[in-house]
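Researcher: Structure prediction, please.
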Amino acid sequence: MSSDEPSDDPTDELAGDGDADRERTSSGVEDDPTASGGGREPVPTAGATTGRKHCISCGEDISADAAVCPECGVNQSRVPGSAGPGRTADEKYCTNCGAVINREAEMCPECGTTQTVGISGEKDKLAAALIAIFLGGLGIHKFYLGDNRMGVIYLCFFWTGIPALLGLIEGIIYLTKTDEEFQWRYVTD
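Model: Predicted structure follows.
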């Protein structure tokens, strides 16, 4: 094929373009990496490039793989139910940028990072207590809280009446705990 004949290969068009800074994307649209603006770049997840994140309770910079904050001692898999330094009980810190955000926020309004902590996994203390009081003999409250092994044990021994008594006691204990303590102690991930 001579250089005067047109080619069906789209990569051949780039070879003679003469502009090294421009590239043709798979959709055929030119992309200039030196141009400013033009769209929002994706935000990396917390700790993706640095190996660091912010504590959800105190906002301190901690290791991305830390399960518990070394500064405040809070478990990083659950959002604390009480107020902390620089935030109210309805707020938490963004794990990526450290900004104070709403406790139920799915995305940080400051940096755009998706929040994975505190969105799911929390169980209602009152529901667990009522299930334990009325259906504790069958171990339903244990299944509700994610402790399937104990749920099966309660179910196997329901005919003795002992699980019903334990369920009543556990239901009362659940009601005496704070929401944060209940989540930390009884909810199994």
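Model: The first helix runs from residue 10 to 15.
Researcher: Thanks, that helps.
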